[in-house]
Amino acid sequence: MFSRLLSKRRATGPRSPRERTWRQLSPLLRLLILTQLAFNIGFFAVLPFLAEHLGTAIGMAGWLVGFVLGLRTFSQQGLFVIGGWLVDRYGVRPVVLVGCVLRIGGFAWLGFAEATWAVISSVLLIGFAAALFSPAVESEVARQAMVWEEDGHGSRTRVLALFSAAGQAGAFVGPLLGGLLLAVDFRTACLAGAGVFVLVLAGHAWLMPRHIPGRVRVRDRGGVRELLRNRRFLSLCCAYGSYLLAYNQLYLALPDEVERAAGSQTPLSWLFALSSLLVVFAQLPVTRWTGDRLDLRRSMAAGLWLVAAGFAVVAVARPADWTGPAGLLPAAGFVVLLTLGQMLIVPAARAWVPDLAEEGRIGLYTGALSSVSGVIVLIGSSATGSMLDAGLPAAVPWALLAAVPVLTVGLLPRRPEADTQTQAA
């Protein structure tokens, strides 16, 4: 299956921008993008249903369910920087293969786990697996996108946009697959998720080169001290963290707003589907359009302004206290504007990391981008939760959330003269 998908197809007539970009990619880039699709299918076939399983089937208390979910996030996002360091030291292939083995074991264990210690251990294993293979895949995609750009195919952001769209497609298909498998039971969904990673493991063991041309392994220790002194990179982390904080409101502030307007959270699934489909179908055209007009800094700035506008829409409409279909329009506007901002921010941030990283340490910096941003989200989400529970006027939390991305626009690093030229798409 992998070999057929990686092979080039013969031209049969006019093709879409996505198809033209896909045909220009190297076999390695195709493998990595398909990997991101498979990762998310396997992951989202299980994790969206975990809280319900822990609360009803196993009978965990609500606080313990939240604790377990928080541990999974920490073991993944918080340890990205370790995964990135391992990639720089040992290479992409071994880190991805070990990560897949751990994810297979974690999902299989979770399917049979009933005791609290077993559930926690399996969830930690699932999270740590992602902390290994995600920085490996993301850093190599960023590096290969630079090569693609240097070969004259267009802006590197187009490759990273296709990577993001593949991830969102997996995030859309995964829950649908999991929902069907839950008709049997949760264990079946877990084993199916493990099966997806068995296929990924086999594909990488067969197709991933043992040595990737141009990638030099860093044998010496260190790098973290220089990273912490890299003010331009840390500024990028702060700006990216503000976006992730905004994205996290899909799970924190938005459900409350939907519940208020509709009387239930049923419309949430449709709003999530809207977000995923927008990225799947519009990510590459948006990136192609902006790639001809904006450099990386301006693309991120425009994305942050769009995110702020999404919060502002709800803040302005909230005092009217609309309910029913009309009451859901501000929430839908927020989702659309947030997703459009995401389409500009995510490829630009990932494309910017190689310019700010030390030679040979793209993995470390790619992992640190997620880890540092994750800390910002953890602190910011706690503050947001306090605001939502503080009895403030309804529009205030949304207005304050709108101010955060606006303020971080000023933190975006100024690019050196050599980096300011936008590549033609």
TrEMBL record:
SUPFAM superfamilies per record: MFS general substrate transporter
Keyword check for Nucleotide-binding: no
Membrane topology: Multi-pass membrane protein
Domain of life: Bacteria
Main location: membrane
Transmembrane parts of this sequence: 28-51, 57-74, 95-112, 118-138, 159-180, 186-207, 233-250, 270-287, 299-317, 329-350, 362-383, 395-412
Protein location: Cell membrane
Gene3D superfamilies xref list: MFS general substrate transporter like domains
Stretches assigned to the Major facilitator superfamily (MFS) profile domain: 28-417
Entry's Gene Ontology cellular component terms: plasma membrane
Keyword Chloroplast belongs to the record: no
Keyword entries, A-Z: Cell membrane, Membrane, Transmembrane, Transmembrane helix, Transport
InterPro entries: MFS, MFS_dom, MFS_trans_sf, MFS_Transporters
GO molecular function: transmembrane transporter activity
Name used for this protein in its record: MFS transporter
